[in-house]
Specification:
25 strands, six-stranded antiparallel beta barrel
């Protein structure tokens, strides 16, 4: 064929083009704004975008940042010109509305933007809310984390022959870049400037996988951003439903409603998926994959449920349904739909359909952050049972037994939460959640002033010893460490935060690094991480002496129950001192040692080692103020009152977070907490014992 397409991709392009064009928009200055005083909505084209859900346009950050280097991106108003028809062949007109930029990725683009012709930092995405109700089409987004390298098409606004229109061109996906954040587009055709922000469509599966980002300076081809980077949208730490989950829920319900409606005869994405040439053979004779209609229905039924409590809950259900651990290097799955994306190409018998039905069964009996709409979970199970009728009989029996076990387990959990547990009263509230936590490990790099680091997810007491890596790096400078850890920590938090509480951050370092100001780092939202979530310090793994381990278990249990006693360990009335091992071992088990001087210098450094060796699992230390003449008395006085008021150690990490929030909010009564850190050696949260390889010499 003249454009190099195969017959199958040519047919797919023919089917998909009308649907994609109907959802693709032109982005420009807002109508009537100072950048377009003519109020005609036809100012210069900044780029393209596309509707991913009713009222929501996805584009590139550099598109909405056009001509506004001094303008804040989030909150900026832009013009959106769209096609008002909803499908192929439908009569329609163009319309122009105003949109507001709700969020840009990465968030640091608000602080620093590249020069006019330089590439913007990945993922270079912007989410725009349309400010008036309009009728428009939406694309179908892939549920896969990471694109498959197949034939594709990209769309956007062009001005060939002086006519503005949405056009599409074909290419191949040639690989990834930026650790999977970007997709390389082939050089089959030239990407024009106005196409930035437009959709990239996988022609084999009929789903949008990317956002056009840049073209090569010479020749054809360029880069697109993988749409799975939408999962890196900021997650609220206060239990609210995040923007990503809200938008994806609206996306799935839009396609579900269109699929069920019999009031419109125009083709939907589900209809076209059914007509696409089958690019993947089903080795299970048609029973290995859900049909397009079944997949759309399943996504819609999942969207009817409250969003999952945490990313780890989704990943765990996907692992149980798939039969193996999903790829941990992919962005965190944040919605029930994302869990389906982890079930493609599973090992073993049954194929994707069996894995997805197992997953849907488990979701139907899962604990939800709030009660589902009446009958929503039962409707999901009824759909699973009916859909399984066309599959193997052993699978139908397995799903039924799985559902019964899940119902029984959910009822036991409900009774336990209500204080009706068979084996004693429910756990006292107010302590840390027992779920997964984020672990940051930092190692000093010899005598050089650089550090190696690793970010992981600790599964928690329910799955002791399980550690899931997130990212690692070497030779970061002290000044560059917060920036190097910004994205890895954000990914870890997305995996671990629940609707009930933000996850704990555990910082495992040698005592020499206890002055590392992790709680003061600002990773997202302009708020220090220690204000957003509880942060504790950990000694690296390994107490080798049995006697010390026994003392640690005894002291930990006693401190958790309270009441609490404080004891200065490195000063006496403001003067430095070195405690003796015998004195430390003789203190009451419910004592919390307090150290007020610089952790990396003597006598405090030696005292920290002695306190650890004596088996104290809860210790308070701090980074002292810059003024060497400042008294430590306000710190000790405030801490003594706090320990007395807390009553027991279990609540200290959360109370320290509250104190940091008060100080951040300019409460003078909480200023004494500046630099305070809590050492928290929880024996139920075992740390990995291996250290990373040192960097190149």
């Amino acid at each position: 064929m003249p454009d190099g397409r195969t017959a199958g991709s040519a047919r797919a392009f023919e089917l998909l083009e009308p649907l994609v064009r109907a959802a693709t928009v032109r982005v420009h200055a807002p109508p009537g704004g100072y950048e377009n005083p003519g109020n005609d909505g036809t100012g210069p084209t900044w780029g393209s975008g596309f509707f991913i859900a009713p009222g929501w346009v996805l584009t590139c950050a550099h598109v909405v940042g056009e001509g506004g280097a001094a303008v804040r991106l989030a909150g900026r108003e832009v013009g959106i010109t769209f096609f008002s028809g909803t499908a192929a062949g439908a009569a329609g007109t163009t319309g122009t509305v105003t949109g507001r930029v709700e969020c840009v990725l990465p968030e640091r683009l608000e602080e620093h933007r590249p020069g006019r012709r330089a590439l913007w930092d990945l993922p270079d995405l912007a989410l725009v809310r349309v400010l008036s109700p309009v009728s428009h089409a939406c694309v179908w987004l892939t549920d896969r984390a990471g694109p498959r390298l197949d034939e594709a098409a990209y769309f956007g606004c062009t001005e060939e022959l002086g006519i503005r229109e949405i056009t599409g061109r074909t290419t191949r996906l040639r690989g990834t870049a930026g650790n999977g954040a970007a997709i390389r587009l082939g050089d089959d055709d030239e990407i024009e400037a106005g196409m930035s922000g437009g959709p990239v469509v996988d022609l084999t599966r009929g789903e949008v996988v990317g956002v056009v980002k840049a073209r090569r300076s010479a020749g054809g081809g360029g880069l697109a951003v993988s749409v799975d980077r939408l999962r890196t949208l900021p997650m609220p730490a206060d239990g609210r439903t995040g923007l990503y989950r809200r938008v994806m829920q609206a996306h799935d319900l839009y396609h579900y409603d269109r699929h069920l409606s019999d009031l419109d005869s125009r083709r939907t994405w589900t209809d076209v998926h059914d007509e696409l040439p089958d690019g993947e053979a089903d080795r299970h004779g048609g029973r290995g994959r859900l049909t397009p209609g079944e997949r759309t229905t399943l996504c819609g039924l999942l969207a009817e449920l409250p969003p999952p409590g945490s990313s780890e809950a989704v990943r765990e259900l996907a692992e149980q349904a798939r039969g193996e651990e999903p790829d941990t290097g992919l962005p965190a799955p944040l919605s029930w739909r994302d869990g389906l994306g982890l079930l493609h190409d599973p090992p073993g018998a049954g194929g994707e359909a069996a894995a997805m039905l197992r997953y849907a069964t488990d979701v139907s009996v899962a604990d939800h952050r709030e009660p589902p709409s009446p009958g929503a979970d039962e409707e999901l199970w009824d759909w699973v049972r009916i859909t399984a009728e066309r599959l193997w009989r052993p699978l139908r029996r397995e799903l039924g037994e799985r559902h019964e076990r899940g119902l029984a387990a959910r009822e036991r959990r409900r009774r336990a939460r209500a204080g009706q547990a068979v084996h004693g009263p429910a756990r006292r509230r107010g302590g840390l959640p027992e779920g997964p936590s984020v672990l940051l490990e930092v190692w000093a790099h010899g005598w050089e002033d650089v550090y190696d680091w690793r970010v992981s997810v600790l599964a928690g007491p329910a799955r002791p010893g399980r550690v899931t890596p997130v990212a690692a790096g070497v030779r970061a400078t002290p000044a560059g460490l917060p920036e190097a850890l910004r994205a890895p920590l954000a990914e870890g938090f997305r995996r671990c935060d629940t609707h009930e509480a933000p996850a704990l951050l555990e910082v495992a370092v040698e005592p020499e690094l206890f002055a590392l100001p992790v709680d003061e780092w600002t990773l997202s939202g302009g708020v220090p991480v220690g204000v957003q979530r509880p942060v504790v310090l950990r000694h690296p793994a390994g107490w080798d002496e049995d006697a010390t381990a026994a003392a640690a278990d005894r002291r930990w249990t006693r401190v958790q129950a309270g009441p609490l006693l404080d004891q200065r360990a490195d000063c006496a009335r403001g003067r430095p001192r070195s405690p003796s091992p015998e004195w430390l071992r003789g203190l009451a088990d419910n004592t919390v040692p307090v150290l007020c001087r610089e952790p990396g210098t003597e006598p405090t450094l030696g005292a920290l080692h002695l306190v650890r060796d004596a088996g104290y699992g809860v210790t308070v230390c701090r980074r002292p103020p810059g003024d060497p003449g400042a008294s430590c008395a306000p710190f000790h006085r405030g801490l003594r009152e706090e320990l007395a008021d807390a009553g027991r150690g279990a609540v200290l990490p959360l109370r320290l977070r509250t104190l940091r929030a008060r100080a951040h909010g300019a409460d003078p009564d909480a200023y004494w907490t500046a630099g305070t850190a809590l050492v928290w050696q929880d024996p139920a949260r075992a740390l990995p014992e291996d250290e990373p390889l040192q960097g190149d010499l």
